[in-house]
């Protein structure tokens, strides 16, 4: 397997009406979602062998998620089904194209009950990359199960990717959120945060200072996305900035997941050392990831907006000064 994503899959109930907060919305559209689910699909669309390991309800929404994975060629051999907890729901409104209003229904939801006893160790050890987020670190038993999956993959030599993906209203308090998110950082080779998460975790607004704090915890590559302000990549040897592309933004939901899936798709093609030692390679991948997230932002929804590899390459060829066009 090229990439295994361990984490959350849920149903996003996305508001039909833009420009309104949740309280004022009157209609929603069902959309398959979940950060790790999005990344698994994004990697598959980029031509990679990807798998999703998580837990959904043994209900119509859970079976819909399974079908979406299968339609997108994502391996679901180890997708778990829960007869006692429902598939999670997230109601989402878009007050503006770049802001989101969330309300989660998880009390508990199936993804919070991920069961490590149903894992296959050989399957986890034989992946080039394993990606996870903090969503399944919120509560037991999914927390222990997620950390066990990461440990097994790491033992097998996999590259570990971590996206804290902070959702404050899922946690009981900020102290617990910060502690558990930080606890997982030493396990990661690559960590992707947005600028708000960087400040929350490290206390630093300055990108380079905050990134150094994260790198000192163990990761070898830090990626920081800042929405319309672009992104940074930082290692112990070099750092750089990538601006966004000029596109008509409709919905930024899932842009981070699109960025991550594209980045990991390239990373899975070679050893991490090959990239860490070559800034030009990292910058090229960051440009491609930025292009992918730009494409995603021009459409509503997430999975339906995740681009295929050819789309990203064509986008870059048309962009001025793109190294992919040389």
Your description of this structure?
- The protein has 326 residues and is of the alpha/beta class.
- It has one domain: UDP-N-acetylmuramoyl-L-alanine:D-glutamate ligase (3-Layer(aba) Sandwich).
- The chain has helices at 35-45, 60-71, 121-125, 142-155, 174-184, 195-202, 207-216, 255-267, 272-276, 279-297, 309-318; strands at 3-6, 10-15, 28-33, 50-53, 55-57, 74-75, 80-82, 89-96, 99-105, 129-133, 159-163, 190-194, 221-225, 231-234, 239-242.
- Strands 6-4-1-10-11-12-13-14-15 form a nine-stranded mixed beta sheet, sandwiched between helices.
- Strand 10, helix 4 (142-155) and strand 11 form a beta-alpha-beta unit.
- Helix 1 packs across helix 8 (255-267) and helix 10 (279-297) packs across helix 11 (309-318).
- The model has no long low-confidence stretch (mean pLDDT 93).
Mean pLDDT: 93
CATH superfamily: Ribokinase
Question: How many alpha or pi helices?
Answer: 11
Strand fraction:
15-25%
Q: What's the helix and strand layout?
A:
Layout: E1 3-6, E2 10-15, E3 28-33, H1 35-45, E4 50-53, E5 55-57, H2 60-71, E6 74-75, E7 80-82, E8 89-96, E9 99-105, H3 121-125, E10 129-133, H4 142-155, E11 159-163, H5 174-184, E12 190-194, H6 195-202, H7 207-216, E13 221-225, E14 231-234, E15 239-242, H8 255-267, H9 272-276, H10 279-297, H11 309-318
Parallel strand pairs: 1-4, 1-10, 2-8, 4-6, 5-7, 10-11, 11-12, 12-13
Antiparallel strand pairs: 2-3, 8-9, 13-14, 14-15
Helix pairs in contact: 1-8, 6-7, 8-10, 10-11
């Amino acid at each position: 397997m090229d990439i295994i994503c361990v984490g959350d899959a849920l149903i996003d109930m996305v508001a039909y009406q833009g420009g309104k907060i949740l309280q004022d919305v009157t209609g929603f559209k069902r959309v398959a979602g979940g950060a790790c689910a999005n990344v698994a699909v994004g990697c598959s669309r980029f031509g990679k062998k990807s798998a999703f390991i998580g837990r959904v309800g043994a209900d119509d929404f859970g079976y819909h998620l399974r079908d979406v994975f299968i339609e997108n060629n994502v391996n679901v051999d180890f997708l778990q089904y829960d007869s006692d907890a429902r598939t999670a729901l997230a109601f989402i409104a878009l007050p503006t194209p770049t802001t989101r209003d969330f309300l989660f229904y998880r009390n508990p939801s199936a993804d919070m009950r991920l069961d490590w006893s149903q894992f296959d160790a050989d399957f986890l050890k034989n992946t080039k990359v394993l990606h996870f987020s903090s969503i399944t670190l919120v509560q037991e038993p999914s927390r222990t199960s997620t950390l066990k999956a990461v440990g097994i993959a790491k033992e097998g030599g996999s590259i570990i990717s971590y996206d804290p993906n902070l959702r404050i209203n899922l946690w009981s308090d900020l102290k617990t959120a910060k502690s558990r998110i930080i606890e997982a950082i030493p396990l990661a080779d690559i960590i992707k945060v947005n600028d708000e998460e960087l400040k929350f975790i490290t206390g630093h607004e300055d990108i380079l200072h905050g990134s150094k704090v994260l790198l000192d915890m163990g990761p070898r590559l830090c990626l920081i996305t800042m929405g319309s302000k672009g992104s940074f990549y930082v290692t112990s040897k070099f750092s750089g900035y990538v601006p966004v592309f000029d596109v008509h933004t409709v919905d930024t939901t899932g842009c981070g997941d699109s960025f991550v899936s594209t980045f990991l798709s390239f990373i899975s093609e070679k050893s991490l050392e090959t990239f860490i030692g070559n800034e030009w390679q990292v910058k090229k991948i960051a440009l491609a990831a930025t292009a992918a997230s730009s494409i995603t932002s021009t459409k509503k929804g997430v999975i339906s907006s995740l681009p295929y590899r050819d789309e990203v390459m064509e986008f870059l060829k048309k962009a001025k000064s793109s190294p992919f066009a040389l």
